[in-house]
Amino acid sequence: MKLCTFHHGDTTRIGVITDEGVVDLSVAAPELPGEMVALLAAGPDALRRASSAASNAKSRLALDSLRLAAPILRPPKFLAIGLNYADHVAEAGIEAPKHPTVFNKQSTCVAGPRDPVWMPRISHVLDYEGELGIVIGKRCRHVPHDRAHEVIAGYLVVNDVTIRDWQFRVPTWTMGKSFDTHGPIGPWITTADEVGDPHGLRLRTFVNDELRQDSNTKNLIFDCYAIVEHLSAGFTLEPGDVIATGTPGGVGIAMKPPKLLVAGDRMRVEIEGLGALDNQVVAEPDATLLWHRTRSSSMAPLELHHNGLSSCSQKVRLVLAEKNLAFTSRDVNLVSGEQHSPEYVKLNPNHVVPTLIHDGRVLIESSLINEYLEEAFPAVPLAPRDPAARHAMRLWVKQIDEKVHPAAGVITYAIGARPAQMLLPPEQREANVAAIPDAARRAARRSVLEHGIEAPEFEGALHAFLDLIDAMDSRLAPGCWLSGDRFGLADAAALPYVLRLEHLAMTPLFSGATRPRVADWLARVKARPSFETAVAAWAPAPILNLFRTQGEAVWAEIEPLTRRA
To answer: For 154, 206, 290, 375, which has the most beta carbons within 10 A of its beta carbon?
Structure first.
Protein backbone atom coordinates (compact mmCIF):
# COMPACT_ATOMS: atom_id res chain seq x y z
CA MET A 1 0.00 0.00 0.00
CA LYS A 2 1.16 3.51 -0.80
CA LEU A 3 0.02 6.12 1.74
CA CYS A 4 0.12 9.78 0.78
CA THR A 5 -0.72 13.22 2.11
CA PHE A 6 -2.11 15.61 -0.46
CA HIS A 7 -3.53 19.07 -0.98
CA HIS A 8 -6.84 19.21 -2.84
CA GLY A 9 -8.58 22.53 -3.06
CA ASP A 10 -7.49 24.25 0.11
CA THR A 11 -7.68 21.15 2.29
CA THR A 12 -4.94 18.71 3.26
CA ARG A 13 -5.92 15.05 3.48
CA ILE A 14 -4.43 11.57 3.48
CA GLY A 15 -5.07 8.89 0.93
CA VAL A 16 -3.95 5.71 -0.79
CA ILE A 17 -2.24 5.70 -4.19
CA THR A 18 -3.70 3.07 -6.53
CA ASP A 19 -3.27 2.35 -10.23
CA GLU A 20 -6.63 4.02 -10.86
CA GLY A 21 -5.93 7.17 -8.85
CA VAL A 22 -5.86 8.43 -5.28
CA VAL A 23 -8.41 7.17 -2.76
CA ASP A 24 -9.32 9.98 -0.35
CA LEU A 25 -9.53 8.28 3.04
CA SER A 26 -11.63 11.11 4.47
CA VAL A 27 -14.32 9.88 2.06
CA ALA A 28 -13.60 6.16 1.81
CA ALA A 29 -12.94 5.65 5.54
CA PRO A 30 -14.02 8.77 7.45
CA GLU A 31 -13.77 6.95 10.77
CA LEU A 32 -9.98 6.69 10.41
CA PRO A 33 -7.64 9.47 11.61
CA GLY A 34 -7.25 12.22 9.02
CA GLU A 35 -3.52 12.85 9.56
CA MET A 36 -0.66 10.49 8.74
CA VAL A 37 1.11 10.30 12.11
CA ALA A 38 -2.23 9.63 13.82
CA LEU A 39 -3.06 6.93 11.26
CA LEU A 40 0.28 5.18 11.84
CA ALA A 41 -0.15 5.47 15.61
CA ALA A 42 -3.58 3.82 15.32
CA GLY A 43 -1.73 0.60 14.48
CA PRO A 44 -1.95 -2.31 12.05
CA ASP A 45 -5.72 -2.61 12.26
CA ALA A 46 -6.13 0.97 11.05
CA LEU A 47 -3.78 0.30 8.15
CA ARG A 48 -5.71 -2.84 7.22
CA ARG A 49 -8.93 -0.83 7.24
CA ALA A 50 -7.29 1.82 5.05
CA SER A 51 -6.20 -0.87 2.60
CA SER A 52 -9.66 -2.42 2.53
CA ALA A 53 -11.30 0.98 2.03
CA ALA A 54 -8.95 1.72 -0.87
CA SER A 55 -9.77 -1.61 -2.51
CA ASN A 56 -13.50 -1.00 -2.23
CA ALA A 57 -13.58 2.72 -2.94
CA LYS A 58 -16.16 3.85 -5.47
CA SER A 59 -14.40 7.07 -6.40
CA ARG A 60 -10.79 8.15 -6.89
CA LEU A 61 -9.05 11.42 -7.56
CA ALA A 62 -6.76 11.79 -10.55
CA LEU A 63 -3.17 12.14 -9.34
CA ASP A 64 -2.62 15.17 -11.57
CA SER A 65 -5.63 16.94 -10.03
CA LEU A 66 -3.97 17.31 -6.62
CA ARG A 67 -0.63 18.33 -5.13
CA LEU A 68 1.28 15.73 -3.16
CA ALA A 69 2.60 16.97 0.17
CA ALA A 70 5.28 15.43 2.32
CA PRO A 71 3.65 12.17 3.51
CA ILE A 72 4.45 13.20 7.08
CA LEU A 73 4.09 16.96 7.29
CA ARG A 74 5.97 17.34 10.58
CA PRO A 75 7.74 14.14 11.70
CA PRO A 76 8.07 13.80 15.48
CA LYS A 77 11.77 13.17 14.81
CA PHE A 78 13.75 13.50 11.57
CA LEU A 79 16.91 11.49 12.18
CA ALA A 80 19.68 10.72 9.74
CA ILE A 81 22.75 8.54 9.37
CA GLY A 82 25.96 9.90 7.89
CA LEU A 83 28.78 8.05 6.10
CA ASN A 84 26.79 4.85 5.59
CA TYR A 85 27.95 3.81 2.09
CA ALA A 86 31.55 2.74 1.55
CA ASP A 87 31.94 4.75 -1.67
CA HIS A 88 30.71 7.91 0.08
CA VAL A 89 33.14 7.32 2.94
CA ALA A 90 35.92 6.91 0.37
CA GLU A 91 35.08 10.11 -1.50
CA ALA A 92 34.99 11.95 1.85
CA GLY A 93 38.54 10.70 2.51
CA ILE A 94 37.90 9.37 6.02
CA GLU A 95 37.81 6.02 7.76
CA ALA A 96 34.63 3.96 7.80
CA PRO A 97 32.73 4.48 11.08
CA LYS A 98 32.58 1.69 13.64
CA HIS A 99 29.12 2.81 14.78
CA PRO A 100 26.31 4.67 13.00
CA THR A 101 26.98 8.40 12.69
CA VAL A 102 23.70 9.91 13.87
CA PHE A 103 22.52 13.48 13.40
CA ASN A 104 19.13 15.12 13.18
CA LYS A 105 17.43 17.37 10.70
CA GLN A 106 14.94 19.81 12.20
CA SER A 107 11.43 18.76 11.22
CA THR A 108 10.70 22.27 9.92
CA CYS A 109 13.00 21.50 6.97
CA VAL A 110 10.53 18.97 5.55
CA ALA A 111 9.30 19.68 2.02
CA GLY A 112 7.01 17.85 -0.35
CA PRO A 113 8.08 15.62 -3.25
CA ARG A 114 7.54 18.38 -5.85
CA ASP A 115 8.14 21.46 -3.70
CA PRO A 116 10.86 23.99 -4.51
CA VAL A 117 14.10 23.85 -2.53
CA TRP A 118 15.46 27.24 -1.52
CA MET A 119 18.95 28.45 -2.27
CA PRO A 120 19.63 30.28 1.00
CA ARG A 121 20.46 33.96 0.96
CA ILE A 122 23.38 33.34 3.35
CA SER A 123 25.18 30.53 1.47
CA HIS A 124 25.32 29.04 -2.02
CA VAL A 125 27.22 25.89 -1.05
CA LEU A 126 24.14 23.76 -1.72
CA ASP A 127 24.34 20.00 -2.31
CA TYR A 128 22.06 16.98 -2.75
CA GLU A 129 22.06 13.57 -1.04
CA GLY A 130 19.65 10.88 -2.28
CA GLU A 131 18.69 8.45 0.48
CA LEU A 132 16.35 5.68 1.55
CA GLY A 133 14.09 6.76 4.41
CA ILE A 134 12.60 4.56 7.12
CA VAL A 135 9.21 5.44 8.65
CA ILE A 136 8.59 4.12 12.15
CA GLY A 137 5.16 2.60 12.78
CA LYS A 138 5.25 1.59 16.45
CA ARG A 139 6.41 3.22 19.65
CA CYS A 140 9.43 1.17 20.62
CA ARG A 141 12.64 0.95 22.64
CA HIS A 142 15.51 -1.59 22.77
CA VAL A 143 14.52 -3.27 19.50
CA PRO A 144 16.76 -6.22 18.55
CA HIS A 145 18.01 -6.47 14.97
CA ASP A 146 15.93 -9.54 14.15
CA ARG A 147 12.69 -7.80 15.20
CA ALA A 148 13.34 -4.33 13.83
CA HIS A 149 11.18 -5.02 10.77
CA GLU A 150 8.16 -5.27 13.10
CA VAL A 151 8.33 -1.58 14.06
CA ILE A 152 8.84 -0.19 10.55
CA ALA A 153 5.66 1.07 8.90
CA GLY A 154 7.25 1.64 5.53
CA TYR A 155 9.83 3.41 3.42
CA LEU A 156 10.13 6.57 1.35
CA VAL A 157 12.63 8.61 -0.65
CA VAL A 158 14.65 11.36 1.06
CA ASN A 159 16.83 14.12 -0.33
CA ASP A 160 19.12 15.16 2.53
CA VAL A 161 19.79 18.61 1.04
CA THR A 162 22.85 20.12 2.70
CA ILE A 163 24.59 23.47 3.07
CA ARG A 164 28.18 22.24 3.11
CA ASP A 165 29.94 25.27 4.62
CA TRP A 166 27.46 25.36 7.49
CA GLN A 167 27.69 21.58 7.89
CA PHE A 168 31.43 21.69 8.50
CA ARG A 169 31.63 24.81 10.66
CA VAL A 170 31.31 22.71 13.80
CA PRO A 171 31.53 18.98 14.60
CA THR A 172 27.74 18.55 14.74
CA TRP A 173 25.95 18.78 11.38
CA THR A 174 22.46 19.89 12.37
CA MET A 175 22.71 23.49 11.15
CA GLY A 176 23.95 22.57 7.69
CA LYS A 177 21.28 19.90 7.35
CA SER A 178 18.22 21.76 8.60
CA PHE A 179 17.64 24.86 6.46
CA ASP A 180 14.00 25.40 5.52
CA THR A 181 12.85 23.25 2.54
CA HIS A 182 16.02 21.13 2.77
CA GLY A 183 14.24 17.89 3.65
CA PRO A 184 12.12 16.73 0.69
CA ILE A 185 10.50 13.37 1.48
CA GLY A 186 7.98 11.20 -0.33
CA PRO A 187 6.41 10.91 -2.74
CA TRP A 188 4.44 8.57 -0.48
CA ILE A 189 5.05 5.91 2.18
CA THR A 190 5.29 2.45 0.66
CA THR A 191 4.32 0.08 3.45
CA ALA A 192 6.85 -2.48 4.63
CA ASP A 193 4.76 -5.46 3.53
CA GLU A 194 4.86 -4.21 -0.06
CA VAL A 195 8.60 -3.47 -0.03
CA GLY A 196 9.75 -6.73 1.54
CA ASP A 197 13.52 -6.70 2.04
CA PRO A 198 14.62 -3.04 1.78
CA HIS A 199 18.25 -4.01 1.18
CA GLY A 200 18.21 -4.52 -2.57
CA LEU A 201 16.72 -1.32 -4.01
CA ARG A 202 18.45 0.68 -6.74
CA LEU A 203 18.93 4.35 -5.78
CA ARG A 204 19.71 7.05 -8.34
CA THR A 205 20.03 10.84 -8.19
CA PHE A 206 19.90 13.09 -11.24
CA VAL A 207 20.62 16.80 -11.55
CA ASN A 208 19.13 18.26 -14.74
CA ASP A 209 18.95 14.71 -16.17
CA GLU A 210 22.65 14.08 -15.45
CA LEU A 211 23.11 10.92 -13.40
CA ARG A 212 25.07 11.83 -10.27
CA GLN A 213 24.43 8.92 -7.88
CA ASP A 214 23.78 5.29 -8.82
CA SER A 215 23.89 2.69 -6.07
CA ASN A 216 21.86 0.07 -4.24
CA THR A 217 20.67 -0.16 -0.66
CA LYS A 218 22.48 -3.52 -0.40
CA ASN A 219 25.61 -1.37 -0.06
CA LEU A 220 24.56 0.17 3.27
CA ILE A 221 27.29 -0.23 5.90
CA PHE A 222 24.67 -0.34 8.67
CA ASP A 223 21.44 -1.77 7.31
CA CYS A 224 17.94 -0.53 8.18
CA TYR A 225 17.47 -2.99 11.01
CA ALA A 226 20.86 -2.21 12.54
CA ILE A 227 19.98 1.48 12.47
CA VAL A 228 16.69 0.89 14.31
CA GLU A 229 18.48 -1.33 16.84
CA HIS A 230 21.14 1.33 17.46
CA LEU A 231 18.77 4.30 17.79
CA SER A 232 16.23 2.52 19.98
CA ALA A 233 18.99 1.55 22.40
CA GLY A 234 19.21 5.20 23.40
CA PHE A 235 15.75 6.67 23.03
CA THR A 236 12.16 5.87 22.18
CA LEU A 237 11.18 5.78 18.52
CA GLU A 238 7.62 6.86 17.77
CA PRO A 239 5.12 6.45 14.93
CA GLY A 240 5.92 8.93 12.18
CA ASP A 241 9.63 9.26 12.97
CA VAL A 242 11.63 9.45 9.73
CA ILE A 243 15.17 8.08 9.52
CA ALA A 244 17.32 8.90 6.48
CA THR A 245 19.74 5.99 6.13
CA GLY A 246 22.65 7.72 4.40
CA THR A 247 23.75 8.65 0.90
CA PRO A 248 26.01 6.82 -1.57
CA GLY A 249 28.94 8.30 -3.45
CA GLY A 250 28.46 10.98 -6.07
CA VAL A 251 27.61 14.06 -4.02
CA GLY A 252 28.39 17.34 -5.74
CA ILE A 253 30.96 18.64 -3.24
CA ALA A 254 33.20 15.57 -3.79
CA MET A 255 33.38 15.86 -7.57
CA LYS A 256 36.49 17.28 -9.20
CA PRO A 257 35.79 20.06 -9.76
CA PRO A 258 32.82 20.27 -7.37
CA LYS A 259 29.36 20.37 -8.97
CA LEU A 260 27.24 22.24 -6.48
CA LEU A 261 23.64 23.21 -7.09
CA VAL A 262 22.56 26.55 -8.51
CA ALA A 263 19.15 28.19 -8.76
CA GLY A 264 17.21 26.58 -11.58
CA ASP A 265 18.72 23.11 -11.12
CA ARG A 266 16.23 20.26 -10.90
CA MET A 267 17.03 17.32 -8.59
CA ARG A 268 15.42 13.93 -9.07
CA VAL A 269 15.97 11.17 -6.51
CA GLU A 270 14.40 7.82 -7.32
CA ILE A 271 14.43 4.51 -5.51
CA GLU A 272 13.27 1.29 -7.08
CA GLY A 273 9.68 0.55 -6.05
CA LEU A 274 9.31 3.67 -3.90
CA GLY A 275 8.85 6.44 -6.47
CA ALA A 276 10.78 9.67 -6.99
CA LEU A 277 11.31 13.17 -5.64
CA ASP A 278 11.53 15.98 -8.19
CA ASN A 279 12.52 19.32 -6.66
CA GLN A 280 13.79 22.47 -8.31
CA VAL A 281 16.24 24.86 -6.67
CA VAL A 282 14.93 28.42 -6.44
CA ALA A 283 16.23 31.55 -4.76
CA GLU A 284 15.02 31.94 -1.19
CA PRO A 285 12.04 34.30 -1.49
CA ASP A 286 12.06 37.74 0.05
CA ALA A 287 8.99 36.74 2.07
CA THR A 288 11.21 34.68 4.41
CA LEU A 289 12.66 37.84 5.96
CA LEU A 290 10.97 37.91 9.35
CA TRP A 291 12.36 41.20 10.64
CA HIS A 292 12.01 44.47 8.78
CA ARG A 293 13.18 47.76 10.20
CA THR A 294 10.29 50.18 9.88
CA ARG A 295 8.99 52.98 12.00
CA SER A 296 8.57 52.03 15.64
CA SER A 297 4.78 51.78 15.54
CA SER A 298 5.12 49.00 12.95
CA MET A 299 6.76 46.76 15.52
CA ALA A 300 3.79 46.91 17.88
CA PRO A 301 1.86 43.63 18.33
CA LEU A 302 -0.93 42.80 15.89
CA GLU A 303 -4.19 41.24 17.06
CA LEU A 304 -6.56 39.83 14.43
CA HIS A 305 -10.20 39.00 15.13
CA HIS A 306 -11.12 36.70 12.25
CA ASN A 307 -12.71 33.46 11.09
CA GLY A 308 -11.06 30.56 9.28
CA LEU A 309 -13.40 30.45 6.28
CA SER A 310 -14.32 34.12 6.06
CA SER A 311 -13.29 35.50 2.66
CA CYS A 312 -12.34 38.87 4.10
CA SER A 313 -10.35 37.23 6.88
CA GLN A 314 -8.49 35.12 4.33
CA LYS A 315 -7.28 38.08 2.31
CA VAL A 316 -5.99 39.91 5.40
CA ARG A 317 -4.22 36.78 6.67
CA LEU A 318 -2.71 36.34 3.22
CA VAL A 319 -1.22 39.83 3.29
CA LEU A 320 0.06 39.29 6.83
CA ALA A 321 1.71 36.05 5.70
CA GLU A 322 3.23 37.61 2.59
CA LYS A 323 4.75 40.29 4.80
CA ASN A 324 5.78 37.72 7.44
CA LEU A 325 3.88 39.53 10.18
CA ALA A 326 2.96 37.49 13.24
CA PHE A 327 -0.34 38.19 14.97
CA THR A 328 -2.36 37.14 17.97
CA SER A 329 -5.38 35.20 16.74
CA ARG A 330 -8.89 35.82 18.07
CA ASP A 331 -11.37 33.44 16.45
CA VAL A 332 -14.90 34.72 15.88
CA ASN A 333 -17.53 31.96 15.53
CA LEU A 334 -19.83 33.15 12.75
CA VAL A 335 -22.21 30.19 12.93
CA SER A 336 -23.13 30.93 16.54
CA GLY A 337 -23.39 34.65 15.80
CA GLU A 338 -20.42 35.77 17.89
CA GLN A 339 -19.90 38.68 15.47
CA HIS A 340 -23.16 40.12 16.83
CA SER A 341 -22.08 39.98 20.47
CA PRO A 342 -21.92 43.32 22.30
CA GLU A 343 -18.22 42.85 23.01
CA TYR A 344 -17.37 42.36 19.36
CA VAL A 345 -19.70 45.07 18.06
CA LYS A 346 -17.79 47.56 20.22
CA LEU A 347 -14.80 46.76 18.03
CA ASN A 348 -16.61 46.41 14.72
CA PRO A 349 -20.04 48.06 14.51
CA ASN A 350 -20.60 46.43 11.11
CA HIS A 351 -20.92 42.98 12.74
CA VAL A 352 -18.35 41.47 10.34
CA VAL A 353 -14.83 40.05 10.39
CA PRO A 354 -11.97 40.76 10.31
CA THR A 355 -10.92 43.44 12.76
CA LEU A 356 -7.24 44.23 13.22
CA ILE A 357 -5.84 45.95 16.32
CA HIS A 358 -2.41 47.49 15.95
CA ASP A 359 -0.70 49.79 18.41
CA GLY A 360 -4.04 50.48 20.08
CA ARG A 361 -5.77 51.34 16.79
CA VAL A 362 -8.87 49.38 15.77
CA LEU A 363 -8.95 48.82 12.01
CA ILE A 364 -11.95 47.47 10.09
CA GLU A 365 -12.85 46.67 6.45
CA SER A 366 -10.48 44.10 4.97
CA SER A 367 -9.35 46.08 1.91
CA LEU A 368 -8.61 49.12 4.05
CA ILE A 369 -6.76 46.93 6.54
CA ASN A 370 -4.59 45.61 3.70
CA GLU A 371 -3.87 49.17 2.51
CA TYR A 372 -2.89 50.04 6.08
CA LEU A 373 -0.56 47.03 6.28
CA GLU A 374 1.02 48.03 2.97
CA GLU A 375 1.82 51.48 4.31
CA ALA A 376 2.77 50.48 7.85
CA PHE A 377 4.95 47.54 6.79
CA PRO A 378 6.47 48.52 3.43
CA ALA A 379 9.52 46.22 3.48
CA VAL A 380 7.69 43.55 1.41
CA PRO A 381 5.71 45.63 -1.10
CA LEU A 382 2.42 44.24 -2.43
CA ALA A 383 1.30 47.33 -4.36
CA PRO A 384 2.95 48.45 -7.60
CA ARG A 385 4.93 51.68 -7.58
CA ASP A 386 3.72 52.84 -10.97
CA PRO A 387 0.66 55.12 -10.46
CA ALA A 388 -1.26 53.61 -13.37
CA ALA A 389 -0.63 50.08 -12.15
CA ARG A 390 -1.60 51.08 -8.63
CA HIS A 391 -4.84 52.54 -10.00
CA ALA A 392 -5.54 49.26 -11.81
CA MET A 393 -4.89 47.35 -8.57
CA ARG A 394 -7.33 49.53 -6.65
CA LEU A 395 -9.93 49.13 -9.37
CA TRP A 396 -9.75 45.35 -9.01
CA VAL A 397 -10.14 45.64 -5.25
CA LYS A 398 -13.04 48.09 -5.55
CA GLN A 399 -14.97 45.93 -8.02
CA ILE A 400 -14.44 42.82 -5.90
CA ASP A 401 -15.62 44.64 -2.76
CA GLU A 402 -18.67 46.20 -4.37
CA LYS A 403 -19.88 43.39 -6.65
CA VAL A 404 -18.34 40.05 -5.77
CA HIS A 405 -18.28 40.20 -1.99
CA PRO A 406 -22.06 40.74 -1.61
CA ALA A 407 -22.57 37.93 -4.12
CA ALA A 408 -20.35 35.65 -2.05
CA GLY A 409 -22.71 35.86 0.88
CA VAL A 410 -25.61 34.81 -1.31
CA ILE A 411 -23.74 31.94 -3.00
CA THR A 412 -22.19 30.65 0.22
CA TYR A 413 -25.36 30.65 2.24
CA ALA A 414 -27.57 29.34 -0.56
CA ILE A 415 -25.35 26.30 -1.18
CA GLY A 416 -22.93 25.66 1.67
CA ALA A 417 -23.90 27.34 4.92
CA ARG A 418 -27.68 26.93 4.75
CA PRO A 419 -27.76 23.32 6.09
CA ALA A 420 -25.86 24.27 9.27
CA GLN A 421 -27.96 27.39 9.76
CA MET A 422 -31.18 25.42 9.39
CA LEU A 423 -30.09 23.20 12.29
CA LEU A 424 -30.18 26.19 14.64
CA PRO A 425 -33.36 26.89 16.58
CA PRO A 426 -35.59 29.18 14.48
CA GLU A 427 -35.43 31.96 17.05
CA GLN A 428 -31.62 31.93 17.05
CA ARG A 429 -31.51 31.84 13.24
CA GLU A 430 -33.86 34.81 13.03
CA ALA A 431 -31.92 36.67 15.72
CA ASN A 432 -28.72 36.22 13.71
CA VAL A 433 -30.40 37.60 10.59
CA ALA A 434 -32.05 40.46 12.45
CA ALA A 435 -28.68 41.49 13.89
CA ILE A 436 -27.26 42.24 10.43
CA PRO A 437 -27.17 46.05 10.39
CA ASP A 438 -27.37 46.53 6.60
CA ALA A 439 -30.96 46.20 5.35
CA ALA A 440 -30.02 44.85 1.90
CA ARG A 441 -27.74 42.18 3.35
CA ARG A 442 -30.38 41.30 5.93
CA ALA A 443 -33.05 40.82 3.26
CA ALA A 444 -30.76 38.75 1.04
CA ARG A 445 -29.73 36.51 3.94
CA ARG A 446 -33.35 35.90 4.93
CA SER A 447 -34.21 35.08 1.30
CA VAL A 448 -31.44 32.56 0.69
CA LEU A 449 -32.03 30.86 4.03
CA GLU A 450 -35.62 30.37 3.03
CA HIS A 451 -35.21 29.47 -0.63
CA GLY A 452 -31.62 28.26 -1.14
CA ILE A 453 -30.55 28.32 -4.79
CA GLU A 454 -34.15 29.14 -5.75
CA ALA A 455 -33.80 32.54 -4.10
CA PRO A 456 -34.27 35.39 -6.62
CA GLU A 457 -30.88 36.83 -5.63
CA PHE A 458 -28.98 33.67 -6.54
CA GLU A 459 -28.62 33.96 -10.31
CA GLY A 460 -27.43 37.56 -10.13
CA ALA A 461 -24.86 36.61 -7.51
CA LEU A 462 -23.63 33.75 -9.66
CA HIS A 463 -23.18 36.10 -12.61
CA ALA A 464 -21.13 38.47 -10.46
CA PHE A 465 -18.71 35.60 -9.90
CA LEU A 466 -18.70 34.76 -13.62
CA ASP A 467 -17.90 38.40 -14.40
CA LEU A 468 -14.94 38.21 -12.01
CA ILE A 469 -13.36 35.06 -13.42
CA ASP A 470 -14.02 36.20 -17.01
CA ALA A 471 -12.23 39.47 -16.28
CA MET A 472 -9.38 37.62 -14.60
CA ASP A 473 -8.97 35.22 -17.50
CA SER A 474 -8.81 38.16 -19.91
CA ARG A 475 -6.29 40.05 -17.79
CA LEU A 476 -3.93 37.27 -16.82
CA ALA A 477 -1.05 36.10 -18.96
CA PRO A 478 1.11 33.05 -18.15
CA GLY A 479 3.20 33.74 -15.06
CA CYS A 480 1.64 37.15 -14.45
CA TRP A 481 -0.50 38.51 -11.64
CA LEU A 482 -3.53 40.77 -11.63
CA SER A 483 -1.64 44.03 -11.19
CA GLY A 484 1.73 43.22 -12.73
CA ASP A 485 4.58 40.75 -12.57
CA ARG A 486 4.43 40.29 -8.78
CA PHE A 487 1.81 38.91 -6.43
CA GLY A 488 -0.03 41.85 -4.91
CA LEU A 489 -3.05 43.20 -3.10
CA ALA A 490 -5.34 42.59 -6.09
CA ASP A 491 -4.46 38.89 -6.06
CA ALA A 492 -5.05 38.74 -2.30
CA ALA A 493 -8.45 40.36 -2.84
CA ALA A 494 -9.50 37.92 -5.57
CA LEU A 495 -8.23 34.66 -4.09
CA PRO A 496 -10.93 34.02 -1.43
CA TYR A 497 -13.70 34.30 -4.00
CA VAL A 498 -12.12 31.97 -6.55
CA LEU A 499 -11.48 29.57 -3.67
CA ARG A 500 -15.11 29.82 -2.63
CA LEU A 501 -16.13 28.48 -6.03
CA GLU A 502 -13.74 25.60 -5.47
CA HIS A 503 -15.11 25.00 -1.97
CA LEU A 504 -18.58 24.69 -3.47
CA ALA A 505 -17.50 22.16 -6.14
CA MET A 506 -17.77 24.70 -8.97
CA THR A 507 -14.27 24.11 -10.38
CA PRO A 508 -15.63 23.26 -13.87
CA LEU A 509 -15.88 27.03 -14.23
CA PHE A 510 -12.08 27.34 -14.39
CA SER A 511 -10.50 24.04 -15.33
CA GLY A 512 -9.24 22.51 -18.55
CA ALA A 513 -10.21 24.62 -21.53
CA THR A 514 -12.54 26.79 -19.45
CA ARG A 515 -10.74 29.92 -18.21
CA PRO A 516 -7.33 28.19 -18.12
CA ARG A 517 -5.49 31.33 -17.02
CA VAL A 518 -7.57 31.48 -13.85
CA ALA A 519 -6.72 27.82 -13.17
CA ASP A 520 -3.01 28.55 -13.70
CA TRP A 521 -3.16 31.63 -11.47
CA LEU A 522 -4.86 29.67 -8.68
CA ALA A 523 -2.25 26.90 -8.86
CA ARG A 524 0.54 29.49 -8.56
CA VAL A 525 -1.12 31.15 -5.56
CA LYS A 526 -1.43 27.78 -3.84
CA ALA A 527 2.25 27.09 -4.43
CA ARG A 528 3.23 30.20 -2.43
CA PRO A 529 4.31 29.54 1.18
CA SER A 530 1.79 32.13 2.36
CA PHE A 531 -1.13 30.03 1.12
CA GLU A 532 -0.42 27.18 3.52
CA THR A 533 -0.05 29.42 6.57
CA ALA A 534 -2.77 31.95 5.77
CA VAL A 535 -5.46 29.87 4.10
CA ALA A 536 -5.04 26.09 4.20
CA ALA A 537 -3.99 25.97 7.85
CA TRP A 538 -7.18 27.77 8.92
CA ALA A 539 -9.64 25.80 6.77
CA PRO A 540 -11.88 23.52 8.87
CA ALA A 541 -12.05 20.24 6.96
CA PRO A 542 -15.56 19.20 8.14
CA ILE A 543 -17.07 22.46 6.87
CA LEU A 544 -15.19 22.27 3.58
CA ASN A 545 -16.35 18.69 3.12
CA LEU A 546 -19.92 19.81 3.79
CA PHE A 547 -19.58 22.69 1.32
CA ARG A 548 -18.18 20.37 -1.34
CA THR A 549 -20.90 17.78 -0.81
CA GLN A 550 -23.64 20.40 -0.97
CA GLY A 551 -22.11 21.93 -4.10
CA GLU A 552 -21.85 18.58 -5.86
CA ALA A 553 -25.49 17.84 -5.02
CA VAL A 554 -26.80 21.00 -6.73
CA TRP A 555 -24.25 21.47 -9.54
CA ALA A 556 -26.57 19.95 -12.14
CA GLU A 557 -29.16 22.63 -11.28
CA ILE A 558 -26.60 25.44 -11.21
CA GLU A 559 -24.62 24.57 -14.34
CA PRO A 560 -27.27 25.80 -16.84
CA LEU A 561 -27.22 29.20 -15.11
CA THR A 562 -23.48 29.52 -15.83
CA ARG A 563 -23.83 29.39 -19.60
CA ARG A 564 -23.29 32.75 -21.22
CA ALA A 565 -25.63 33.79 -24.01
So the answer is: 154
